């Protein structure tokens, strides 16, 4: 591990929870942004498939 000396500055009992907590917060923020800015994602989480609502007329 090329960044192994970081644990001489920050204790692993403090650094690892901060690292994992920040990853969790970022993931929650990304999911919240996708949920609030799309129409298909909430439907997907509710178990509905994204069906085409308009018909295509040929000719």
Compact overview of the structure:
It is found in: Cell inner membrane. The chain is an all-alpha fold and 59 residues long.
Kindly describe this structure:
The protein has 59 residues and is mostly helical. It has helices at residues 12-37, 40-45. The longest helix has 26 residues, at 12-37. The chain is elongated and about 70 Å long.
> Distance between termini?
64 Å
Count all strands and give the number. 0
Low-confidence stretches: none
- Write the H/E string, N to C: HH
**How would you state the average pLDDT, rounded?**
82
Element layout with pairings:
Layout: H1 12-37, H2 40-45
List the keywords.
mainly alpha; cell membrane; 59 residues; 0% strand; Antenna_alpha_CS; bacteriochlorophyll binding; elongated; 2 helices
